[in-house]
Design brief:
Helix content is 36%, strand content 26%. The two termini are 32 Å apart. By secondary structure, the protein is an alpha+beta fold.
Length: 245
């Protein structure tokens, strides 16, 4: 994004990523990601780009867009389905997405510790547990709660949600993108909230990045950003069930 500030209007980088996380069939501490940023784009144009990239990748392997993955046939014929986070939450939990007390009770019934957690964090944990596995897809989940998206623009007509999407295939996230927040004042406030959460014990929260804020003060154009997990995409193309393979 600093390159975008410097005047390079389209940037991508594909390389190795290291995260101190657990290992399972779809998670590895070392993996490959492509990140893409485009000036004068937004999360809608990034969804269009993601769709074209994945369909082109399938076509390049000589396979049909109706792809066999294990025992499941996944239809990648465009356009991919799109649905909002709250629509899917209501459909799969039977709860009103605004019913914070009901969501908290469900989270505690599942076994989550809810003490001291923001309602949207609790909601996100329930979403991961109750919704994600059922998303065979490909489906773009859009309009996430703004409070859990610290680098994302809010929707103009509904500032409670962020202009963010995640692409789910076979119950797993394959891509993540958003309309990048380019307001340095708002970004500082978001970073300060992240720092407070980190100081309170949230090890996954971020900190205040002064260098990035300085870059935003020079000026970042309206920008769409996108990240795709290349290992998970390769799993689909090769009909492989483990990321290690």
């Amino acid at each position: 994004k600093r390159l975008m500030v410097g005047g390079i209007e389209r940037v991508y980088d594909m390389g190795r990523v290291f995260r101190n996380e657990g290992i399972d069939a779809t998670h590895n501490p070392e993996f490959t990601m492509i990140e893409i940023y485009q000036a004068y784009g937004d999360y809608r144009s990034m969804m269009d780009l993601t769709e074209r990239l994945i369909v082109d990748a399938i076509t390049a392997t000589g396979q049909s867009t109706k792809l066999q993955w294990g025992e499941t046939t996944i239809d990648f014929t465009p356009p991919f389905q799109r649905a909002t986070y709250d629509e899917l939450f209501a459909k799969h939990t039977g709860l009103d997405p605004r019913d914070t007390d009901g969501i908290r009770r469900l989270a505690e019934k599942i076994g989550f510790d809810t003490a001291g957690k923001h309602p949207d964090v609790i909601k996100s944990e329930v979403f991961e547990e109750k919704v994600e596995d059922s998303l065979v897809g490909p489906i773009f989940v859009t309009d996430y709660p703004a409070s859990i998206c610290p680098l994302t623009k809010r929707k103009r007509d509904n500032p409670e949600v962020a202009e963010r999407f995640e692409l789910f295939v076979g119950g797993r996230e394959l891509a993540n993108g958003y309309s990048e927040l380019n307001d340095p004042v708002e970004q500082r406030l978001r970073f300060e909230d992240e720092q407070k959460a980190k100081d309170a014990g949230n090890v996954e929260a971020g900190t205040v990045d002064e260098d990035y804020l300085r870059a935003l003060e020079y000026g970042l154009p309206p920008t769409g950003g996108l990240g795709i997990g290349m290992d998970r995409l390769a799993m689909l193309l090769a009909d492989t069930q483990t990321i290690r393979d």
